[in-house]
C-alpha cells in the first residue's frame, strides 16, 4: 500500500549525476547556444523524470532540493550571467520597489475597507497596511478574506484619499514614471527575456497538456518505464463522504487514507491514488468509475479519473514549480516583472489572442485546481502589479471575456478558482473600466453574455422560470456572477464624458433594455377562484434576478444623472422600449367611459381580479426613475423641446404600475388566498427593503408622474375603476350604499379593505415628496425620514436600523451622516445592546401613513406615538406632518386633494360614519379620510403662509369642503359632516383628530380673512390666533394630564394588589427565604453582645459556643416544615458536583488513572479538584426521591417516543432543581451542628503527641499493618461488617443520604462507576469540601468582598452542609478504613514508621490536609478513652499544619526580591526575627538548595501573604463546621484583619510563636520534613514547585482589537493535516491554545467515541468544561462533557454596543472588559455547566447540536 515507503532514498544513479553536475558549466553552455529553447527542453527531458514522481508517494522536500540544484540553479545562473547569489542580490539592490502592496490574502485573513475613502467595497487593505494608514481613524469595515485577492495599498484609483500606507508611501524622488528596465543592461534584458520565454512556454505547454501517455515534442524522456499514476480529479458534484466511500471500496485503502486522499483532491484538485504499471492503474480507474456511479444514485456523473504516465505527471509537477520560481524571481526586481509581463502577453504564432497568457486563460476550466491557483497567483504578482501591463492584460481579458464566461458556465468548480474571478481586480479600477467600455464595448459584452445564458423564454420572449430544474438553478447561480462584473464596471460614475463613452454607454443601455424587456411582465399571475392552486409556482428565480439587478438599475440611473445628453437619450430609449412592451399586451381590452361628479374619462375595461397581472415591470420603473431625474436635473425645464413629452400617454404610463399596486391591495383584502404562498412572498419582497427601491417606490413614482400630467378627477376615476370600487362611489346614492347592499359580508369586507388601500394610495401619491426631484428636498432628507419612522416604532439597535434601510451598491445606507440629527444613542450595560432613541422634537414629523410601513409597523408605531403623547399629557390626535413643496414638474399633484371626485369620496365615507359601523364601513377607512382632510388643510395652510400675495393661493380646500355635495340633492358638506361627527359617541377614538381638523379649518379661515383685510399683518395675526388656540390647548392638556394621573394611580393600586396576591400564594417560599436571610444575618447579630467581653474563636477549647437554636426548614416540594435533627427525617439540598481545574497551577499534569489514583493528599498545584455547588433549595429526601423517580420515568417515555435529548442526563443522576431549574446531580443532607463537649482540661502539645502516638499504635495493632492505599483496595479486602460500628446517631434516611452524596462525589470526582464500598469515598468528600472552600475564598478575594457576610445564603448553606457532612461521613463508611486514612494523613506530619510512602510536605496542600485530618478525626475520637476533647485535638492539629504550611512557604519563597525594603515598625520586629530564625533552621536541615536570605522583612512578608489564603480558608471551614459567628471586623474590608483573623482562629498574631514556643517538640518534626527525599528533589527542579500565595487563575488576555485575533487565527494551520488552513480556528480562553475545531482532520477518540478538537481539549484542560472563542464566528462556546454546550455572546462589541456573531456586519470590534470579566466570573464560580443548562432549557434547538464534534 501507499503508506509503506515514505522515506524514499535518492536513487544512487542520480547521486552520481548530481555529483558530476555543474551549474556553471550548464549555464555557460546555454549562454553559447543559439536555440536555448531546445537546449533547456533537452535538459528538462533528461532530469525532470528522474527527480519527480518516482514512486507512489511524492517526497516534496528532496524533490524540491534536487529541482533547485539541477533545474532552477542553471536557469538563475543563465539569467544573471554569474553566480545567482550575487546576481540576484544586485538586482534587488537596484530595484525601485513598486508602490503597490499586492499582498495576496490567505483564507480567513482580516481585510479592511475604509467606508469613507474606498472607491468601492472591493478595495481592501491588509492588516499591516491598514495599521499604517490614515483610514484606521476613519469609519472602516473589517472582513475576513475568502482567499485570493490582494491588498490595494498604493493604488491611487482605489482610494479617494490616503492611498498609501507609511510603508508604501512613494519616495520624494518620484521615479514611478521611469521605465524600470532603464536600470538593466541590454544583455541582461535579453537573457532574461530568453529564459522567461522558455520557462513560461514550458509551464504553459505542460499545464495545458491533455494527453495522458505522451509528452510535447522535445520533452520525451530518454528511457520510458512502465510506471503510471491513477489520478483522481476533484468535482463539485460528489460529496466528501461519497469520495471517501468510493476510494475505500475501489483502491482498498483504510478510512484514514481515503480521508487524506479526499482532502487533497478537494484542496489541490487532483491526487494520485495508485502507482504501478499501466494495467494496475487502469484496473483501479475502472473500479472507481463504476463504483462512484453506483453509489451516487442522483448524479449521472462518475468521478473523473485518468491514468497518466509518470513522466507526464513529473513534468506537470515541475511546471508548477517553474511558475513558483518565476513568481519568486520577479520579486527581486520590477524590471524582471515587466519582462515577464512582456513575454506573457507577446502575441504567439497563431495570431490574435494566442499569447501565453491567453493560452492559460482559455484553458483555465480544463486545468485542475492546484494548477489554476498557481498561475492565478503568478498573474497577480506579475500582470496585476505592473500598471502598464495590467491595462494590456485587462484588454485581453475583455476580449476573451465571452469565452471565459462560457467556459466557466460549463465548468463546475467554484468561482474563486476560476480565472473569471480576476474581473474584480480589473473592472473596479475606474479608468480601466471606462477604457474597457469605450474600447472593448465591455458593458454590452457582459450584458449580452448574460442574456444569452438565460435561455428559457415564453412566447412573448420573456424569461420563464417556471418548471426550472436543479441543474438550471445551478447554471442560474453561476450566471449571476456576470451581474457582479457589470456592477464592478459601473460602480464608479464618470466625472467626464467623451462622445465615445456616451455612445458605448448608450449601446450598453440598449442591450440592458433588451434584458429588462425580457423581464417586463414575466411570471404573470391570474387570480385563482374556486380551487386552490395545485402547485406553488416558482417565483424565487425571478426575484433573485430582480434583486441582483437592483443596484445595476440604480447605478445606470446615476450614470444618466451625470450627463444631460445621456439622460435625454436614455429617456427616449426607455420610452421606446416601454411602448414596445405595451404593444405586446394591450390586446382585447375594450374602451369604456367613466363619469362621476360631473367629470368623465375614457379608459379600458380591465380587472386585476380576472386577468393576467405581473409584478415585474422593470422597464416602467426605469422610466419612472429617469423621469424624476428630468425634474431633479431640471432638464425638463431647460430642454423641453428635446424630450418626447408629447408622446407620453399618462394613462398608459400608470396602467401597469397601478395594476401591480391594486394586486397588492387585493392580496391584503384576501381576494387571492387561493393562489398560495408564492404570491404572498412576491408581495412581501415587492415591499421589502431589498427590492422596494426599484419596485414599489418606482411604481408609486410612476403614478405620481402620470397623475401630475392628468386631470386629477380623471386620475381618481381610473384608480377607482382599477380598484374595482368605481361602482360603489359612482352610484347616485353612494352615500347610502350599505342600506341596501348588505348581501354578502365577505364582499363588504373586501371592499372595505380595498377602499382603505385606495385611500392610502391617494395619500402616498400626494404625500410622498421626499425623493429629490419630486419634492424640494435635500439628498439626506429621505434617509432621515426613514430613520425617524423606524424609531417611531421603538428604539432600535444600529444593526436593526441598517437592516431596515436600503443599502446602495457600496453597502452603505447613508445613515451615519444623519443619525445624530434624529436620534440619540443610549449605551448598553453588561448585557443587551446600545439603542438609538428618537429625539423628542422629531416626533412631530411622524406620518402614520408612511409608505414604507407594513400594516404591523403601522399599528405598532401608532400605539407607541399615542402612548408618547399621553405621557406628555397631550391629546392623542396624530395629524399628518407638514410636507415639503413639490418640484414644479409634480406640483399639480396637490390638486388631487381638492378635486371633486375626491371630495365626493370623502363625503361618502363621512356620511357612512354617521351610523355606527356594524361592518359597513371601517374605523381605519374613516381614519384615512380624516388624515386626507388633514393633508389638504395643511397644504392650504402652508401655501397661505408661504405666499407673499394672497391671490397666489389657488388651492382652496376650505372653500370646497364647505360646499354642499353636488348630486343628486343637496347633501351635507364635508365640513358639516365633520362637525356632525365631532360628538358622535361611537367615534370617541377619532375625537381628538376631528377636533384638530376643525381647529385647523378655523385657523385657515382666520388667516384668509386677516390677509384679505390687511396683508401686512398676516403673520402677526395668525400668531394671535395661535395664541388663543394655545391657551385652549393648555387647558385641555391640563385636563388630560389629570385624567392620566388618576389612571396611573389606579394602575399602581392594581399592581400592588397583584403583588400581595402573589406573596400570599407563595407564602412559604417567601418565609423560607426570609428565614434563610435571618439565619445568615443572625450569625452576625448573635455575637454582638458576646464579642464585647470575649473574643470569638472558632476552633479549640476556647471556642465560642453559639446558643442552641432550633433549625426549621420547609420542603420546596411538599411545603411542610421540618426541624433538622440527627434522628429526624432527612432534609437535602439540591447540589451539583463537578470536576474542576479552575484553580489548577499545572495544566500539563496528565489526568489520573481513576482506578489506581490515591486522592488522600492533594498536590498544591490543585490540578484537579471536585467542586460542589448548590442552588440552596431544600427538600425532604423522600420527596426528592419521588421527584427524581418521576423525572426518570418521564425521561424514559420521552426517549422512546421522541428520541430527543434533554439538557440534563438522567442516566447520570442529573435533574433540574424543581424550583429554580438549576442543573443538579445529587443532594447533600442537612445535618445539625456538632455539639462539642464542654471544655475539659487541655493537654499540651507534648502530651497530645504522646497520647495520639499511643492511640495510633493501638489502632495499628487493632487492624494490622496498613498498606499504602493503592494496594489496599486492589487486594480483595472484605471490609464489610467485620468491625463494630459505634452507635450511629443518625436516622436511617439520613444514613441513606450520607451514602448518596458520598457516592455521587466519589463517582463524579474520580470519573468512576459508583461503588459504595470504595474506601476513597470519604476522602473525596473531604477533598470536595476543602476544594469548594478554597474556590470560594479565591472568589471573595477576586471580587474584593469581605470573608464573611457577603456570600449568598445558598453558598453559606452549601458550605455548612459540606463541612458537617464531612464530619459525619465516617459513620457511613467502615471505621477502620477512615481511621486508616487518619493515620496516613497524620503521618505526613508526624513520622510514623508503620506508614510507608508518606508524601513530602511540598507535595501536600495544607488546607486539604487540615480539612481531611479534622474531619477524619471523628472516627478516632469515637473510640477514644483518653479523655482528650475534640476541640483540643483540632487545635493541635490546626497549629501543627499551620507550622507545616509556614515551612512550606519558606521553602518555596524564592530569592529575595530587589524591592525597597520598608523599615517596619516595632510591632513586626518580633515576626521578622522569628521568620529569620526559622528560615535559618531550615537551611541547616536542607542545605545549600535553599538560598541565603538576609532580610527578615522579606521572609515575614512571604509568610504573611503566603499563608493568608490558608488562614481564611480555615476560618471559613471552622466557621461552617461549628457555626461560631464571625467577628464583625471580618464582615468588612477594613484594616487590622490579620489580627482579628488570627484571634478568631485561636492563633497568635505572630505565627512564628507557634514554632518557637514549642521548638523542642517541633524541631524533630521539622527535621523529618526537611530530610524527606522529595524536598531536595523538588527544590532542585525535579517536581512542580508551587509558590504561595497561589494567584487566582484568569482567562487569557485578549487583544483590544478583534482583528488581531482574526489575524492570529488566519496564520494558524491545522496541526494534523500538515499546513492546511483550519476552517474553524477556536481559541481556548482558559489556556490560550488554538484548536482546529469542527473538522474531520482533528477528530480524536475519547472514551471510545470520535470527538472534535474542542471536546478533546476540554478533557485535558478543563476536566470536561471548556470556554472557547470561535474566532471566525466571533462567538463564545461553552462546552461541558460530550453532550452539553451552548453559544454565548462574545465580549467584543462594536461602537454601537452590539456584538457581531458570525462577523457579518464588519464593524470594528473592541474588547468589552466588563463582559469578559462576566464570563471569567462564570468560570471562576463554576457556573459554566449551569449556564449551559439554562441556555438549553430556553432554546431546545441547542440540545440537538452534536457538541462533541466541535
Ligand atoms: Zn498591504
Ligand atoms: Zn501599504
Ligand atoms: Zn479612509
Ligand atoms: Zn417534602
Ligand atoms: Zn433550586
Ligand atoms: Zn485550554
Ligand atoms: Zn485539523
Automatic annotation (TrEMBL):
Its EC number is 2.3.2.27. GO terms for biological process: protein ubiquitination; ubiquitin-dependent protein catabolic process via the N-end rule pathway. A zinc finger (UBR-type) spans 99-170. Residues 1078-1091 have a biased composition (Polar residues). InterPro entries: ClpS_core (IPR003769), E3_ELL-like (IPR042065), E3_ligase_UBR-like_C (IPR044046), Ribosomal_bL12_C/ClpS-like (IPR014719), UBR-box_UBR2 (IPR047508), UBR1-like (IPR039164), UBR1-like_WH (IPR055194), WH_DNA-bd_sf (IPR036390). Keywords: Acetylation, Chromosome, Coiled coil, Isopeptide bond, Metal-binding, Nucleus, Phosphoprotein, Transferase, Ubl conjugation, Ubl conjugation pathway, Zinc, Zinc-finger. It is found in: Chromosome; Nucleus. It catalyses: S-ubiquitinyl-[E2 ubiquitin-conjugating enzyme]-L-cysteine + [acceptor protein]-L-lysine = [E2 ubiquitin-conjugating enzyme]-L-cysteine + N(6)-ubiquitinyl-[acceptor protein]-L-lysine. One of its GO terms (molecular function) is zinc ion binding. It comes from the Eukaryota. It is an enzyme of class 2 (transferase). Residues 1024-1036 have a biased composition (Basic and acidic residues). Residues 99-170 form the UBR-type domain. Pathway: Protein modification; protein ubiquitination. Belongs to the E3 ubiquitin-protein ligase UBR1-like family. This is E3 ubiquitin-protein ligase. It comes from Oncorhynchus tshawytscha (Chinook salmon). The gene is UBR2.
Amino acid at each position: 500500500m501507499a503508506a509503506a515507503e515514505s522515506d524514499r532514498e535518492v536513487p544512487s544513479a542520480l547521486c552520481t549525476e548530481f555529483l558530476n553536475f555543474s551549474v556553471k558549466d550548464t549555464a555557460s553552455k546555454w549562454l553559447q547556444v543559439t536555440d536555448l529553447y531546445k537546449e533547456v527542453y533537452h535538459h528538462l527531458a533528461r532530469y525532470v523524470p528522474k527527480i519527480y514522481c518516482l514512486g507512489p508517494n511524492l517526497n516534496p522536500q528532496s524533490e524540491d532540493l534536487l529541482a533547485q540544484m539541477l533545474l532552477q540553479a542553471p536557469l538563475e545562473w543563465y539569467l544573471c550571467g554569474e553566480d545567482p547569489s550575487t546576481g540576484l542580490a544586485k538586482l534587488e539592490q537596484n530595484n525601485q520597489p513598486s508602490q503597490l502592496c499586492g499582498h495576496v490574502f490567505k483564507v480567513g485573513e482580516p481585510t479592511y475597507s475604509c467606508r469613507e475613502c474606498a472607491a468601492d467595497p472591493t478595495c481592501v487593505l491588509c492588516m499591516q497596511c491598514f495599521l499604517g494608514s490614515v483610514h484606521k481613524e476613519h469609519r472602516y469595515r473589517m472582513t475576513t478574506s475568502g482567499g485570493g485577492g490582494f491588498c490595494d495599498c498604493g493604488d491611487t484609483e482605489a482610494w479617494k484619499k490616503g492611498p498609501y500606507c507609511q510603508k508604501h508611501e512613494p519616495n520624494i524622488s518620484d521615479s514611478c514614471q521611469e521605465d524600470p528596465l532603464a536600470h538593466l543592461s541590454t544583455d541582461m534584458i535579453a537573457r532574461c527575456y530568453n529564459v522567461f520565454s522558455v520557462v513560461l512556454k514550458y509551464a504553459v505547454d505542460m499545464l495545458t497538456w491533455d494527453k495522458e501517455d505522451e509528452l510535447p515534442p522535445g520533452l520525451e524522456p530518454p528511457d520510458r518505464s512502465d510506471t503510471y499514476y491513477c489520478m483522481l480529479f476533484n468535482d463539485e458534484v460528489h460529496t466528501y463522504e461519497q469520495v471517501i466511500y468510493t476510494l475505500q471500496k475501489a483502491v482498498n485503502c483504510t478510512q484514514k487514507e481515503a480521508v487524506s486522499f479526499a482532502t487533497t483532491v478537494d484542496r489541490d484538485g487532483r491526487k494520485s491514488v495508485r502507482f504501478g504499471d499501466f494495467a494496475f492503474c487502469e484496473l483501479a480507474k475502472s473500479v472507481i468509475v463504476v463504483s462512484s456511479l453506483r453509489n451516487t444514485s442522483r448524479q449521472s456523473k462518475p468521478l473523473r479519473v485518468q491514468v497518466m504516465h509518470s513522466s507526464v505527471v513529473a513534468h506537470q509537477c515541475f511546471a508548477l514549480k517553474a511558475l513558483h520560481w518565476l513568481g519568486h524571481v520577479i520579486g527581486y526586481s520590477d524590471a524582471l516583472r515587466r519582462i515577464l509581463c512582456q513575454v506573457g502577453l507577446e502575441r504567439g504564432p497563431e495570431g490574435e489572442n494566442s499569447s501565453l497568457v491567453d493560452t492559460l486563460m482559455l484553458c483555465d476550466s480544463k486545468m485542475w485546481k492546484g494548477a489554476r491557483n498557481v498561475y492565478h497567483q503568478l498573474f497577480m504578482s506579475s500582470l496585476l502589479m505592473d500598471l502598464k501591463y495590467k491595462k494590456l492584460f485587462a484588454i485581453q481579458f475583455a476580449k476573451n471575456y465571452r469565452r471565459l464566461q462560457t467556459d466557466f458556465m460549463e465548468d463546475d468548480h467554484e468561482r474563486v478558482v476560476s480565472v473569471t474571478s480576476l474581473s474584480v481586480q480589473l473592472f473596479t479600477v475606474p479608468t480601466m473600466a471606462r477604457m474597457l467600455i469605450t474600447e472593448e464595448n465591455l458593458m454590452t459584452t457582459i450584458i449580452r453574455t448574460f442574456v444569452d445564458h438565460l435561455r428559457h423564454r415564453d412566447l412573448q420572449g420573456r424569461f420563464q422560470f417556471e418548471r426550472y430544474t436543479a441543474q438550471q438553478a445551478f447554471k442560474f447561480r453561476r450566471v449571476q456572477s456576470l451581474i457582479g462584473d457589470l456592477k464592478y464596471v459601473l460602480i464608479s460614475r464618470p466625472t467626464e464624458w467623451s462622445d465615445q463613452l456616451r455612445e458605448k454607454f448608450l449601446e450598453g443601455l440598449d442591450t440592458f433594455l433588451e434584458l429588462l424587456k425580457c423581464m417586463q411582465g414575466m411570471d404573470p399571475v391570474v387570480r385563482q377562484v374556486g380551487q386552490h392552486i395545485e402547485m406553488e409556482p416558482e417565483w424565487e428565480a425571478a426575484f433573485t434576478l430582480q434583486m441582483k439587478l437592483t443596484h445595476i438599475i440604480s447605478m445606470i440611473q446615476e450614470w444618466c444623472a451625470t450627463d444631460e445628453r445621456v439622460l435625454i437619450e436614455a429617456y427616449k430609449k426607455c420610452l421606446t422600449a416601454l411602448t414596445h412592451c405595451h404593444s405586446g399586451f394591450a390586446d382585447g381590452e375594450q374602451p369604456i367611459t367613466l363619469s362621476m361628479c360631473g367629470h368623465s374619462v375614457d379608459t379600458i375595461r380591465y380587472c386585476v381580479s380576472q386577468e393576467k397581472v405581473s409584478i415585474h415591470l422593470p422597464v416602467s420603473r426605469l422610466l419612472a426613475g429617469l423621469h424624476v431625474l428630468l425634474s431633479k436635473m431640471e432638464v425638463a425645464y431647460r430642454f423641453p423641446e428635446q424630450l418626447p413629452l408629447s408622446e407620453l400617454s399618462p394613462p398608459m404610463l400608470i396602467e401597469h404600475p397601478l395594476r401591480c399596486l391594486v394586486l397588492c391591495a387585493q392580496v391584503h383584502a384576501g381576494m387571492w388566498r387561493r393562489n398560495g404562498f408564492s404570491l404572498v412572498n412576491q408581495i412581501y419582497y415587492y415591499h421589502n427593503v431589498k427590492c422596494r427601491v426599484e419596485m414599489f417606490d418606482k411604481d408609486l413614482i410612476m403614478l405620481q408622474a402620470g397623475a401630475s400630467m392628468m386631470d386629477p378627477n380623471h386620475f381618481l376615476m381610473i384608480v377607482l375603476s382599477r380598484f374595482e370600487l368605481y361602482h360603489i362611489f359612482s352610484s347616485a346614492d353612494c352615500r347610502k350604499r350599505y342600506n341596501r347592499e348588505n348581501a354578502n359580508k365577505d364582499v363588504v369586507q373586501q371592499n372595505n379593505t380595498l377602499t382603505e388601500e385606495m385611500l392610502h394610495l391617494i395619500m402616498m401619491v400626494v404625500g410622498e415628496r421626499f425623493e429629490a426631484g419630486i419634492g424640494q428636498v435635500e439628498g439626506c432628507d429621505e434617509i432621515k425620514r426613514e430613520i425617524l419612522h423606524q424609531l417611531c416604532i421603538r428604539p432600535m439597535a444600529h444593526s436593526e436600523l441598517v437592516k431596515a434601510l436600503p443599502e446602495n451598491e457600496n453597502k452603505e445606507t447613508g445613515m451615519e451622516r444623519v443619525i445624530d440629527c434624529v436620534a440619540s444613542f443610549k449605551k448598553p450595560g453588561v448585557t443587551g445592546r446600545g439603542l438609538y432613541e428618537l429625539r423628542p422634537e422629531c416626533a412631530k414629523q411622524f406620518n402614520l401613513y408612511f409608505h414604507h410601513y407594513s400594516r404591523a409597523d403601522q399599528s405598532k408605531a401608532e400605539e407607541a406615538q399615542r402612548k408618547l403623547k399621553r405621557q406628555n399629557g397631550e391629546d392623542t390626535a396624530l395629524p399628518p406632518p407638514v410636507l415639503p413643496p413639490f418640484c414644479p414638474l409634480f406640483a399639480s399633484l396637490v390638486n388631487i386633494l381638492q378635486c371633486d371626485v375626491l371630495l365626493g369620496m370623502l363625503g361618502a365615507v363621512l356620511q357612512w360614519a354617521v351610523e355606527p359601523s356594524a361592518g359597513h364601513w371601517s374605523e381605519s377607512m374613516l381614519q384615512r379620510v380624516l388624515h386626507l382632510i388633514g393633508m389638504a388643510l395643511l397644504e392650504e395652510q402652508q401655501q397661505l403662509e408661504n405666499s407673499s400675495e394672497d391671490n397666489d393661493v389657488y388651492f382652496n380646500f376650505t372653500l370646497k369642503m364647505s360646499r354642499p355635495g353636488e348630486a343628486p340633492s343637496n347633501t351635507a358638506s364635508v365640513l358639516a359632516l365633520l362637525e356632525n361627527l365631532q360628538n358622535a359617541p361611537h367615534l370617541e377614538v377619532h375625537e381628538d383628530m376631528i377636533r384638530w381638523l376643525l381647529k385647523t379649518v378655523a385657523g385657515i379661515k382666520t388667516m384668509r380673512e386677516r390677509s384679505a383685510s390687511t396683508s401686512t399683518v398676516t403673520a402677526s395675526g395668525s400668531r394671535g390666533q395661535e395664541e388663543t388656540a394655545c391657551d385652549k390647548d393648555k387647558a385641555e392638556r391640563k385636563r388630560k394630564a389629570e385624567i392620566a394621573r388618576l389612571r396611573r394611580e389606579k394602575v399602581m393600586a392594581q399592581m400592588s394588589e397583584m403583588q400581595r396576591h402573589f406573596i400570599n400564594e407563595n407564602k412559604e417560599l417567601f418565609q423560607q427565604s426570609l428565614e434563610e436571610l435571618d439565619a445568615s444575618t443572625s450569625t452576625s447579630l448573635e455575637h454582638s453582645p458576646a464579642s464585647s467581653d470575649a473574643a470569638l474563636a472558632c476552633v479549640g477549647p476556647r471556642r465560642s459556643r453559639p446558643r442552641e437554636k432550633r433549625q426549621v426548614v420547609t420542603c420546596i416540594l411538599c411545603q411542610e416544615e421540618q426541624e433538622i435533627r440527627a434522628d429526624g427525617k432527612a432534609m437535602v439540598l439540591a447540589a451539583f458536583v463537578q470536576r474542576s481545574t479552575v484553580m489548577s497551577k499545572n495544566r500539563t499534569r496528565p489526568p489520573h488513572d481513576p482506578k489506581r489514583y490515591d486522592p488522600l493528599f492533594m498536590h498544591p498545584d490543585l490540578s484537579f479538584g471536585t467542586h460542589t455547588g448548590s442552588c440552596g433549595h431544600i427538600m425532604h429526601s423522600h420527596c426528592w426521591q419521588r421527584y427524581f423517580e418521576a423525572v426518570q420515568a418521564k425521561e424514559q417515555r420521552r426517549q422512546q417516543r421522541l428520541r430527543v435529548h434533554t439538557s440534563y442526563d438522567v442516566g447520570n443522576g442529573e435533574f433540574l432543581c424543581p424550583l429554580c431549574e438549576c442543573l443538579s446531580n445529587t443532594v447533600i443532607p442537612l445535618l445539625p451542628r456538632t455539639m462539642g463537649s464542654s471544655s475539659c482540661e487541655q493537654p499540651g502539645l507534648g502530651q497530645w503527641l504522646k497520647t495520639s502516638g499511643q492511640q495510633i499504635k493501638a489502632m495499628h495493632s487493632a487492624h494490622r499493618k496498613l498498606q499504602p492505599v493503592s494496594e489496599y483496595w486492589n487486594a480483595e479486602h472484605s471490609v464489610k461488617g467485620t468491625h463494630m460500628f459505634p452507635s450511629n446517631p443518625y436516622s436511617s434516611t439520613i444514613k441513606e443520604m450520607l451514602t448518596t452524596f458520598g457516592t455521587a462525589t466519589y463517582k463524579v470526582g474520580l470519573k468512576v462507576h459508583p461503588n459504595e464500598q470504595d474506601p476513597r469515598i470519604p476522602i473525596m468528600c473531604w477533598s470536595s469540601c476543602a476544594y469548594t472552600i478554597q474556590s470560594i475564598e479565591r472568589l471573595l478575594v477576586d471580587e474584593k468582598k469581605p470573608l464573611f457576610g457577603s456570600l449568598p445564603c445558598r453558598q453559606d448553606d452549601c458550605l455548612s452542609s459540606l463541612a458537617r457532612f464531612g464530619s459525619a461521613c465516617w459513620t457511613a463508611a467502615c471505621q477502620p478504613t477512615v481511621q486508616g486514612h487518619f493515620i496516613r494523613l497524620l503521618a505526613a506530619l508526624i513520622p510514623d514508621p508503620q506508614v510507608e510512602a508518606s508524601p513530602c510536605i511540598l507535595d501536600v496542600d495544607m488546607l486539604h490536609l487540615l480539612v481531611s485530618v479534622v474531619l477524619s478525626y471523628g472516627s478516632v475520637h469515637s473510640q477514644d478513652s483518653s479523655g482528650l476533647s475534640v476541640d483540643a485535638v483540632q487545635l493541635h492539629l490546626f497549629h501543627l499544619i499551620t507550622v507545616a504550611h509556614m515551612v512550606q512557604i519558606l521553602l518555596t519563597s524564592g530569592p529575595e526580591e530587589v524591592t525597597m525594603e520598608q523599615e517596619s515598625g516595632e510591632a513586626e520586629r518580633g515576626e521578622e526575627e522569628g521568620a529569620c530564625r526559622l528560615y535559618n533552621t531550615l537551611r541547616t536541615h536542607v542545605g545549600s538548595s535553599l538560598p541565603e536570605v538576609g532580610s527578615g522583612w522579606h521572609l515575614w512578608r512571604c509568610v504573611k501573604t503566603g499563608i493568608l489564603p490558608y488562614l481564611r480558608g480555615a476560618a471559613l471551614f471552622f466557621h461552617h463546621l461549628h457555626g461560631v459567628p464571625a467577628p464583625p471586623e471580618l464582615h468588612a474590608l477594613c484594616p487590622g484583619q490579620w489580627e482579628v483573623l488570627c484571634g478568631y482562629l485561636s492563633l497568635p498574631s505572630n505565627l512564628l510563636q507557634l514554632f518557637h514556643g514549642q521548638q523542642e517538640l517541633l524541631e524533630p518534626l521539622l527535621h523529618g520534613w526537611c530530610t524527606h527525599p522529595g524536598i531536595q528533589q523538588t527544590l532542585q527542579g525535579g517536581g512542580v514547585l508551587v509558590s504561595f500565595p497561589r494567584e487566582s487563575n484568569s482567562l487569557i488576555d485578549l487583544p483590544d482589537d478583534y482583528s488581531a485575533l482574526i489575524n492570529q487565527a488566519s496564520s494558524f494551520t491545522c496541526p494534523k493535516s500538515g499546513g492546511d488552513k483550519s476552517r474553524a480556528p477556536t481559541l481556548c480562553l482558559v489556556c490560550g491554545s488554538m484548536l482546529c475545531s469542527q473538522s474531520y482532520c482533528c477528530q480524536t477518540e475519547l472514551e471510545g467515541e470520535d470527538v472534535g478538537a474542542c471536546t478533546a481539549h476540554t478533557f485535558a484542560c478543563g476536566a470536561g468544561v471548556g470556554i472557547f472563542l470561535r474566532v471566525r464566528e466571533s462567538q463564545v462556546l461553552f462546552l461541558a462533557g460530550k453532550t452539553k454546550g451552548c453559544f454565548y455572546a462574545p465580549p467584543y462589541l462594536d461602537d454601537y454596543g452590539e456584538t457581531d456573531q458570525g462577523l457579518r456586519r464588519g464593524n470594528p470590534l473592541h474588547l468589552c472588559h466588563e463582559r469578559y470579566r462576566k464570563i471569567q466570573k462564570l468560570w471562576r464560580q463554576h457556573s459554566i455547566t449551569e449556564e449551559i443548562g439554562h441556555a438549553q432549557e430556553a432554546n431546545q434547538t441547542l440540545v440537538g447540536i452534536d457538541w462533541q464534534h466541535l
